Amino acid sequence: MDQPPEFKLYLGVEEWDSVKLNKSHDQIIWKEIIHVPETDDIYVCLVNTGSGIPFISALELRALGNSIYNKTQSGSLVLFNRLNFGSASNETVSVFAHHFQLTVHNFSPRYGDDELDRIWNAYYFPDWKSIQAPYSSSSLSETEFKLPPKVMETAVKPLSGSYLNFTLGGIDSSEEFYMYFHFAEFEEVQDKIRQFTILLNDITIFDSIEPQYMVSETHSTKNSLSGRQLNFSLAKTNQSTLPPIMNALEIYMIKEFLQSPTEQQDVDAMKKIKSVYQVMKSSWQGDPCLPINYLWDGLICSDNGYNAPSIISLNLSSSNLTGKMDVSFSNLTSLQYLDLSYNNLTGEVPNFLAELPSLKTLNLSWNNFTGSVPLALIEKHNDRSLSLSLDGNPYLCNTTSCAGAKKKNKKTVVVPVVASITLFLVLLGGLAILWSFKRRREQNIVVKPTDQEDKALESKYLRLSYSEVERITDNFQNQIGKGGSGKVYRGRLSDDTEVAVKLLSSSSAEGFNLFQTEASFSIYSCIQKLGFPIWIL
């Protein structure tokens, strides 16, 4: 494409201006705004509108004093033009209005000359006469506006007559302007008087201005100005014996930024997530939710009008996330949908997920989480207030028994059976074997354990952790008996030995004593049903 690019500029979350270049290779375009930020960060975005790739040569930020460029209306000040009157030049490069020609020096005064680094455009107009100060003086900069001496040492006055006229035309009537007129006297007036007024469309807006010798002063409009055409006139008063002068003028347009940025807590959370997991998505720049057409990939945000939006959906599936879940997820308090599937997240499923007040869907499938799922998450899933997906986490226990055991600091009723009543189990095991032999003898089947079998039996009195018991019983999936104090489950050891496990019910009113007494009877009934030697764990 042979056409130069066109694109938009965004400041924060709203459009600030547009950039349109012509085919000239020496064209320089700059955009300037006086803006009071509402957040700690300032985002400047170049937005591709489909008319070429945006580009930027420099981005500069300058701090201004709070007392200058004051205005009564809310909004920021976009530079319309900044004019340096009286600089010698004969090169007319553009027409400012049909009565006002703009001439630009090759080297406009800015930083080095201007402490605030403002760029000043020099003017030439045939009906005006340029005048210059007899000497340079730093006193011209000794105001809150810190005006550069190079600008204030030149001025214009009418070639004849009592007026300096110019027109701001070709503007939109909806646009609102603030004007800053800068003056300094450097002609010896002696017994003469230079006094003038400034009129807008024949209405006086500044009265009896009398510049001081080699001292700068500024007169700014107190309220914004608007109209299809703004006609300005500097006219000498009846008392004045000298015509009006003008040294410099700044013109700004009001720009309202009405849209509030994304909730700061959500912004901070997403920035932390981006940093922790090194998310390399090209769209993850600037504000996460705004502009609405350029929100971050994987996000859905609430539409709150001009009020601050919040993040309600985050999809980071297949995003190469590794490590534990960062606590910054807990700050996304408006989140309704969270998908972290197909990553390599490790560690335990954090409890703070159950505390997200708006969360309705949580997908943690196909990661490497370990331990047990928080009981609160399971309960929310069971009462259907939360859709919970945990498939593909081979080391994760997602049953209520796991969660309940964890909640009780891993003190489980299985541990006393395994460790606390070894003597009782040995005795019970012996009775079970004798009883089995008796039953088989009645069926004309004689079973004679060998010495090796006796040793094998003895070796089976093991101390097992809860997770091991859970593994050998396939998460207590195969119930083979039930008593007043609990259920009996079928299991298989690593050497394929089949066993039965008695599990004390947390709702048992009789407690552990009944469990001890009842265990043998439950196990005996299992022997009758199963017909294999029982190892009591």
Automatic annotation (TrEMBL):
UniProt organism field: Vitis vinifera
GO cellular-component term (any): membrane
Keyword Aminoacyl-tRNA synthetase set for record: no
Keyword annotations from UniProtKB, A to Z: ATP-binding, Leucine-rich repeat, Membrane, Nucleotide-binding, Repeat, Signal, Transmembrane, Transmembrane helix
Domain of life: Eukaryota
Short name of any one Pfam family annotated for the protein: LRR_8
Record-linked SUPFAM superfamilies: L domain-like, Protein kinase-like (PK-like)
PANTHER family for the chain: OS07G0107800 PROTEIN-RELATED (PTHR45631), PROTEIN KINASE DOMAIN-CONTAINING PROTEIN (PTHR45631:SF206)
Name recorded for this polypeptide: Malectin-like domain-containing protein
Transmembrane segments: 413-435
Boundaries of every Malectin-like domain copy: 4-253
Keyword Ribonucleoprotein found: no
InterPro entries: Kinase-like_dom_sf, Leu-rich_rpt, LRR_dom_sf, Malectin-like_Carb-bd_dom, Protein_kinase_ATP_BS
Membrane topology category: Single-pass membrane protein
GO molecular function, one term: ATP binding
Compartment annotation: Membrane
UniProt: ATP binding residues: K502
